[in-house]
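To: structure desk
From: M.T.
Subject: fold request, one chain
Message: Could you run this one when you get a chance? Sequence is below, nothing fancy, just the single chain.
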Amino acid sequence: MASISSLDPAYHDLHNWLTLLEERGGDAATAQQALREVLARLREQVAAAVETAPVLVDEPSDLPGIRGLRPEGPRRMTSGLDAEALRDRLRGAWLGRAAGCILGIPCEGMSKAAIRSAARAMGARYPLAGYWPLDPRLADPTSRHYGLTPRRDFLQPHLRYVGTDDDLTYTLLGLLILEEYGPEFTTADVGQAWLKYLPMACTAEHVALENLRQGVDAATCAVRNNPFVDWIGADIRSDPWAYAAPGWPERAAEFAHRDA
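Reply: Done. Structure tokens follow.
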């Protein structure tokens, strides 16, 4: 099967012809409207086909179905750690998560080759031995990551704290959910926490958050008109549930499933 990206040249070619028609004073509006109608029809056909796609048979979304695919093994383990040692492990997990985000934010979306080239251009060691000394994207230093933390605050000379990032937001959000609703929290509770605490979201979470804001219930907001439904958002949000159930992966997975 040809890659979806193989459609890009055809799209850009039509875009260029429409631009030329508009620049010459022609009736580009009629062609644009016809294109919108064709795309709307195709979108509905594709969205309907997604619901019956065969992969759903092998990748269930219900908790019993997921559990049925588990390999044999222990469902709960004793760590042998006292409270202080466990606290130290959890602190290390959080700091590792934060450190990885700070390192990755300036170069998010860049290819390995581009990252290597940027490091070489600024005279930095590759792989990096620390955080980025300069912005590898050469972005405006006053621009803000997701409109919140200035990008330069993720660079070594300006690094004073862990800036806002959506991946870290979900880790803290998991803690807030447990503090407010307890370990028996429901998916509806998660939805209420999103509405209360999330300032913004990306891709699948953005669609789900907008659905919640429009009154869609938490149980269905993630799958309603959401082409990103199979992306990695639920994975990104999973770490607080592991922190909450050390040595008990089955319980952590149950928490993560309610969240997902």
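Reply (cont.): The chain has twelve helices and two strands. Let me know if you need anything else for the meeting.
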